[in-house]
Design a protein that fits this description.
190 residues, Aminopeptidase, eight-stranded mixed β-sheet
Amino acid sequence: MPTAPHHRDVFPTLHTERLHLRELTPHDAPALFAIYRDAEAMPWFGIDPMTDVSQAHALIATFAQWRTQANPGTRWGLECEGRLIGTCGLFKWNRQWNSCALACELAPAARGKGLMNEALGSALDWGFAQMQLHRVEALVHPRNLASQALLGRLGFSREGVLREAGFWAGRYQDLQVFSLLAHEHAKVSR
């Protein structure tokens, strides 16, 4: 069974044409709070909006702890022109099945510019190569058309609906399941 020592050692910093994918630090809490307090976007994130910057500090600590869990994960801060504009990550790594989950969010001002496509492309390249993944899964709210389109551009296929699998905004939410297999990722050109 392959292992990836990088999850517990040096944080895997990545670079794209416009982005620096790096470890989140406590300094990022105000920018992360600004993203997560956006009530209009939160229905797509799967949690309720943040109400205090201390919640952003706690989330950064949670992301850091992912790397030490039995099923580790990596969450990158997306930096563009010296500013944190969002995050993306691979988590819930099942080493026996060579699979994991994908998640991301982007500040409103950074949307519609292809930045998340660029970031996820790099993160997926790293995951398939370094984690030796076979499958990556993403869960998306059925009305989140922008994320569905993004996943389509990255080569993901829609598999079905998990009925009332999430709970936020005071109610159960359906989630669509998308997946990308290693041989499909290899065919996607960016």
